[in-house]
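Re: Re: token formats

Sure, here are both.
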Amino acid sequence: MSIPFKNILVFLSIAFVVFGYAQNGENAITFEMKLSKDKLGINERIRVDFTMNKDGDNFNPPDFTGFRVLMGPSQSISSSWINGVRSYSKTYSYTLVPTARGQFTIQQATIVIDGETYKSLPRKVEVTAAVDKPSDQMTVDDVADESLHLVAEVSKTSPYLNEAISVVYKLYVAPSISVSNYQPLDNPKYNNFWSQDIPVRRLSAENGTYKGKPYRYVILKRVVLYPQKSGKLEIEPLSLDVTVDVPTAKRDFFGGRIYSQTNKTVSAGRRTINVKALPEKNKPVDFSGAVGNFNFSVTTSKTALNASESLQAKVEVSGKGNLKLFQLPEPNLPGSLEVYDPEFDENVRTTLAGSQGKVSNNYTIVPSFKGKYPIPSIAFSYFDPSSESYKTLNSDEIVINVKEGPVNSSVGNLPNNSTGNKQAVATGNQFNFIKLQPNLSTIGTNYFFGTTRFYLFLLLPLLLIPAAIAFGKKRDAIASDVVGNRIRRANKLARKFLSKAQKELGNKEAFYIALEKALHNYLKAKLKIETSEFSKDKIASLLNEKDVDENTNTGFIALLQNCEMARYSPFSEVQMQQDYDKASEVISQLDKQL
């Protein structure tokens, strides 16, 4: 059976293509020198490898000036085929010991490959005084200690009170070892700081340097801190238990390194922050603790309306700084305007540069009488760390024109007080807007007395008397049930504060942020304390002063700790549901006891 000439041509074409790809993979010839270290003590050893990716002839080693050859040259060859591509490596190895201290240069080595001469690059080596434990005598734990470092990088060590600083925790790993796992042992407590974690969504290794040497590092934790106290404040260390794979001097059957595994505890160490107090000189009287760079405005949804209609007035601060840690100024409204408690709105995001966004109070205002009511200018003061000075912003004056409605002749317009008399005497044309001439028409004759409906309406009050008695007894029973009423009020309060957290069940980060905010808002409402005082120690102390039992106190603090831990530790949906149920129970217990 003869093979068609066309098929032979196709086969030869494919063979040439495969051979061409193989040739191209081998064309990039390399020959280089590798050192086990570039700095060593006079009582240590150094390994020098000359590696090539294609076999050659006439290898000529350098003159190892300043060193004595203990072993070598020894040869090792590695060859493999992966996906049709050949990988080849040949190495000449030497073990050297220094003969004197100083700076030495290992000169070029040469080899002939495919008729061409290739040279390695020279390398410098520093020989120092004898070390306590030579590297060739170091244990696996010693190597891990020298090759693993946890560092807390602080953006600013001397900030002003309430000025943002960032702390980034980096784990540096030397190229000679690898990390297979890590577990937090001790999480730092940021006493006297308001803290905000910035989640690290993905751990990725990057190239960097540590003390002038090349390392790989990974960012484990990021946090933004606002100091709440001046003076020297300490940041507690983050500690980790790390599983490390360290290469040994032993090799397997195929010439590969044998690794040994060990566990090491690394710590970032304590950091001291010197917090500067805000200057007293030129401090505005209305300063409420705002530190940063802000804009300020007061706006209304409308400026013309009728009596009994409503409008919205917004007091807003936007910019960059401690937006969550100061009180917004309050408007000074005329007494004839009925003003409801403001609704607080917050749209703030936190990055390593600090918090930025806006916060506002929204007031609902209902005018009672006709007239014009000015809302005076409001001042907002803050401290700018960049210029180290106080700045004051003033809003524009706003006039509200109430076009239709009764005239408050006894009081008139009260431009500058919010507590004026809201009672007015009915005089003048106060009721002119009421119709005095009704438009009535006669209806047809319809006899009602003596009908069935007449007797039903006559007997209805008698029938309602037993129902009223039963309702009254039920109401008295509910009113006398003090414990039950407290439980119902506490459960209603818990649902109010935890409603947002309940909506985020299953979304770990959003759930625990909402849960932490709910716990803080509850305490702010019940204990009348400011946000800046929200440290766990302060909360525990306040609850003890209020005679809250130990189990409830401990449960509340444990929930706050879970909120902090959840930002960089895995938490299941079951754990989230348990924390939600626990928060509802703790708030109910606190409300009964407070």
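Second one below.
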Amino acid sequence: MKGHLFSILSLISVALPSGELLAEPSSKKAPNVIIIYGDDVGYADLGCYGAEKIPTPNLDRLAAEGVRFTDAHCSAATCTPSRYSLLTGEMAFRKKGTGILAGNAKMAISPKQLTLADVFKSAGYRTGVIGKWHLGLGDGHIDWNGKIEPGPRELGFDYNFIMAATNDRVPCVYLEGDEIVNLDPEDPITVSYGKRIPDSVPGTKYPDGRDNPEAMTYYKNTHGHNHTVINGVGRIGMMKGGKSALWDDETMTDVFIEKTRSFIDEHQDEPFFLFFSSQNIHVPRMPSPRFRGMSELSYRGDAMVELDWVVGEIVKMLQDADIDENTVILFSSDNGPVYDDGYDDGTTVKTSKQEVDRGHDGSGPYSGGKYQIYEGGSRVPLIVRWPNHVEPGVSDALISQVDLLASVASWFDVEIPAGQARDSRDYGEAFVGKDKKGATIILEQAGNVALRQGPWKYFEYDNGKRFLFNLNDDVGEKENLVETRAKKAGELAELLNRYREEGLAESELKSAE
């Protein structure tokens, strides 16, 4: 497989409209790849996508130097299933245990499954994941005070520094390799997502927001998020112990950035793949105090400014190491925006379908957001930048994150075993800006499953109600055409059922145009 390490250089050159590289590669080493994955970042939360109240100069610069996509989608409108699909090339609705996971859930991805990290390792890359995980850990029982496995290392990642689940759930600790960071064995961790933890169980006891709501001093909860209180914020789930291992929410981004710096320093002389999975701008939004007041919004906008700073810091690291021109950066998000997601953090809400904070709508012109089947739930920012190799511009290609695995495998001529990554297809030329059409069909998951075919979007609810929209004429998905365009609705319903149940071969997808 080593002979294919350099094939991406020639492939990307073919992917340019001119058919040639804009400049000779600065190194014969295969390009590094960094995915910077935002959390709950909506389509219009970036200046380059229309945000006026949140300054994002680093992301705007990234877009100006790369390809900015206008019709790119995560695979699902919530965290866990979206991440599952990105890493496995399989739509999450096909597998049980891929919903929004508790902090002590079994790992959703089996070590037997092919992952995006596996593909990079097959191509000779060093691989790492830093930040939010939220894909479960262990095989059904987690010993928080010992080795925690399987975990990211069993899924193709050579290195991991992650939060055990997500920032609004316990345990509020970091995991490096297969162990909790800074854990005192005399203060063992116990985690529960059901019954309360008895006082007789050893370990530091924290306030419970249900009994002591006054302990939620950072800001109060609006719904849920009132179990164990850590750092003045109520969390989902109960936790005892591990006081020395607790994270500080306000320094979390700085911790992740320093781990990223160490990873890049260690691997700058060899090809590497880094999945930087930010906690921003997921609740609880607790950016460093130095970012407070940097937006015209509240904590949500300030957390987005902090995420923008992350992008600038990573680019600086690459420049300092003289590997910027040999590194592909892909920025995107796991799902669309949400405002009140359990905390009274100063964010205002207009309606349940179209949320607006002080005039800022993170979904832009699209309806809905996180948790919802409307475009605002899955249409997310996507920027791909590789200086002097990928021609800057804007692409309207239809793109789904589930197709990234097969596209990367094609770049490196890595064979995908039968039965693996069943929903991922090779749209490598679209990801680098040459193919302006992209996918013929994609699926969008949010409880139900929607099918996109060009401008057409079709979905149906369990109660039998069906919806058909033409996004060319109706980006807000307000005019249901299921009766006036009954024939088209029928065609898409049949296609959706086939794809949802058994999948479609690439030839069938193209014949469905």
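The chain is about 20% helix and 15% strand. Confidence is low (pLDDT under 50) at residues 1-27.
- S.
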